Amino acid sequence: MNVQEDTSAEGMLQPYRVLDLTDEKGFLCGKLLGDLGADVVKIERPGGDAARHIGPFFHDIPDPERSLFWLALNASKRGITLDIETHDGQDIFRQLAKSADVVIESSCPGYLDGLGLGYRELSSINRQIIMVSLTPFGQTGPYSAYKGADIVCWALGGKLLLTGDADRPPVQVSQVPHAWLHGSADAAAATAMALYRRTVSGKGQHLDISIQESVEKVAYLSHLTWTLAHREAWRGGVMRTPPFNTVTYFVWPCKDGYIVFYPFTGPMGPLGTRPVVDYMDEEGMADDFIKGIDWAAIDWGQTPQAEADKISARFRKFFQTKTKDELFAEAIKRPLLIQPVCTSADVMKNIQLQAREYWQRIANRESGEELIYPGGFVKASETSCAVRRRAPLIGEHNDEIYGGEQGLPAGKLNKLKEGRII
């Protein structure tokens, strides 16, 4: 594991300056650009962003500087405070935008225009600026003014329908904001492409990212099923109900968690299922019923549910006598089509990720403690992609950016602080 911040290694986007005005919908966009080497400046309101109060918190101590949500999604950024709803704040932002390459924002359509900070205004003072607007439903259309929580975008993008067990209502995947993260990733990719395009055209542009549309792309194959076959894709959960009524399982409980295994039939049966039955037989847990099944000839579409349940009961009983590690070790050795369902603890100690030095330890200079971050999302032969610095404290880089880079005198900075402009 890397055990330090890495602000000097060259990144693909190292020459570029990004002003990050996003709320939690767009935090990941700026982080990805920062991991690639861009100088991302997170702009918060004076006193700190509201997202700093989103838990969980480091060591379960509620504090705006200890939000793990904030620390995770705002790493690789510097941070300043600025009230862009004030006249002075707007003037300062325009000065920052003159030398910036990108502005990313996630406010309601028209909000920045109303402050005189929209794309038209900024492009008039910086022809090359790229503005990235990430919103639940985009800048146009009948939903454009609507607000949308993560689960709303997940639902209206068509993905929620596919999540959960077939015999129960759809469920939210977890508290992790999946829709927002998909939208942010699309926004980061679009930003990189717009920067490349600018090298050809010499001009910036306004990028309009709809989170609903980002989610729809994730659910695209299921929507293709509707387009081509005029039927909805099924919601499988821990079981799979193909285009017939027989239910088969592919997530199974074991001694210390869950594993994934699908009992294939037809041409894949002898390769995917028979070896598992042979393993069961060696362990004395395969009876004549399951040993006698011709997996190449059986067809789940023609199998009565009662018989499918008898088969599932044999597999379930066997898997519950083994741990995930035991089953995975045998899967690699034999081989078998069995995979463990990893917990966070499992992922942290995964030997593949450790071998690739995926995890990074970033020290908190204030407390001396360390946080472990996922590393870069790509390994490049010529450049670095990594977490470059911990998430900023509230207003941590005000003096560095306003005083050092923008040249504001100390007296002016003090007045701005007193007036809660910064």
Write structural notes for this entry:
- The chain has 422 residues and is an alpha/beta fold.
- The chain has two domains: 17-218 and 374-418, 3-Layer(aba) Sandwich (Rossmann fold); 239-346, formyl-coa transferase, domain 3.
- Helix content is 37%, strand content 13%.
- The protein is built from 18 helices and 13 strands.
- The strands form four sheets. The protein has a six-stranded parallel beta sheet. Strands 9-10-11 form a three-stranded antiparallel beta sheet, with helices on one face.
- A hairpin with a 7-residue loop joins strand 7 (239-240) and strand 8 (248-249).
- Helix 1 crosses helix 7 and helix 7 (178-201) packs across helix 8 (211-218).
- The longest helix has 24 residues, at 178-201.
- The two termini are 37 Å apart.
- The relative contact order is 0.15.
